[in-house]
Amino acid sequence: MTADRVVRVASGQGFWGDWLEAPKLQVRGGGIDYLMLDYLAEITMSIMQKQRVKDPAAGYARDFVPLILDLAAELVTGGVRVVTNAGGVNPAACRDALVAGLAGVQTARPLRIAIVTGDDLMDRLDGLLEAGHGLRNMESGAPLSDIRDRVYSANAYIGMSPILEALAAGADVVVTGRSTDTALTYGPLVHEFGWAADDWDRIAAGVVAGHINECGAQAAGGNTLFDWQGVDMAVPGYPIIEAAADGSFVVTKHAGLGGRVTWATVTEQLVYEMGDPADYITPDCVADFGTARVTDLGEDRVRVSGVRGGPRTDLLKVSIAYHAGFKATGSLTYAAPDALAKARRADEVLRARLDRAGLEFDEIRTEYVGAGACLGREPGRWAAELPEVGLRVGVRAGSRSPVEGFTREIAPLILAGPPTVTGFAGGRPRVQEVMAYWPALIDRTVVESELRVEVTDA
């Protein structure tokens, strides 16, 4: 391995539902070694678990399979390897669907598909609780036993070890469950450069690279506050990490595509969803984001260097989702004059009718969209000049009945309420199940002892 060797890891998805053209453009633009696809968020796991309960062959990112079938021949000829957490709560079903689909795709050689299992703790929860693993809520300290009968999903955040095993076995496509987002980038870097498991600084640099990659276009001009009007996002380039053996890397994108990679776009992403920058905990190290030196090289190239890290912890984070009642949200729009006053009056009328009907809720939340709702501010003297205001009311309760009552009471405001109302379409608001998040910690050996890697030729 030469000292000046560069490994390129391209970001193709930042969430389940992201732009499906992005990974195709990343591969077809050439010059990349890995394509990372991040599909998972906390709520995504519970959605996938509900899908698997209804259909044992579901529970993964469905759009991942047709994407790989479309790219399969190019992945082989271009030598591009894919690392993704598209497996969700059912990596085996994802693998099976992929293998079945590849049977009808011509490639220069068969693809090797690896899956990682063992992060899903649902079938082990009762045994873990009996063994003394309380899985206490990291915020409240309450034991999981308090809500055990309402748990939908429980997945530990796993790190790079199974990804390294799969890549070492020659996998072209690595499909995990709840891998930590950043490992989808730094796992390939550790594999390629042979960094030691306790090379904390280099692994921390990979974590920073992964954090930049994990949200797709955000690091390449999407969702930016800096000159957002001047960024062409019609056909955006997604970020590409060009990493060196010493841990430094350059963030860039394919030339000829839209978007923009600058000091501003990269640093915006660095602080995204950030707590203490000196204490960014992953399964494989603790990274100090405050040590990162970010240098704009111009022409959509930003260099990051100097990242320091420390030893990993003895614990892994567990993401648990549980049923927490029902909710519904309804909206009406009121036009000028006095749009805000009309919306406020409509809210008063609605609440009075809910009281009269004897409906009780855990929470009723009202927002006046257009009058400061997004910023959490009360409107000033300009309120009377607002051309329209959106009244948005949401309710939440432990049982379904009062929420259904709310859905029956909001529509009558159209005729039996303040004037100039519009914007009500699609019928009554839909009652939805509330999925709440329960973060917990567990001894890492309990999880890692059950991790398994299976490799299949397709």
What does this structure look like?
It contains twelve helices and 19 strands. The radius of gyration is 25 Å and the shape is globular. With 458 residues, the protein is of the alpha+beta class. Helix 3 (64-78) crosses helix 4 and helix 6 crosses helix 7 (183-193). The strands form three sheets. It has a ten-stranded mixed β-sheet with strand order 11-12-8-7-1-2-3-6-4-19, with helices on both faces. The longest helix is centred in the C-terminal third of the chain and has 18 residues, at 339-356.
Low-confidence stretches: none
Radius of gyration: 25 Å
Query: Would you count the extended β strands for me?
Result: 19
Order of the strands making up the biggest sheet: 11-12-8-7-1-2-3-6-4-19
General form? globular
Tally the structural domains: 2
- Calculate the terminal CA-CA distance, rounded to whole Å: 30 Å
Oligomer: single chain
Task: Give a quick summary of the entry.
It is built from 12 helices and 19 strands.
Question: What descriptive keywords fit this protein?
Answer:
Alpha-Beta Plaits, 12 helices, six-stranded antiparallel sheet, 2 domains, 458 residues, ten-stranded mixed sheet, alpha+beta
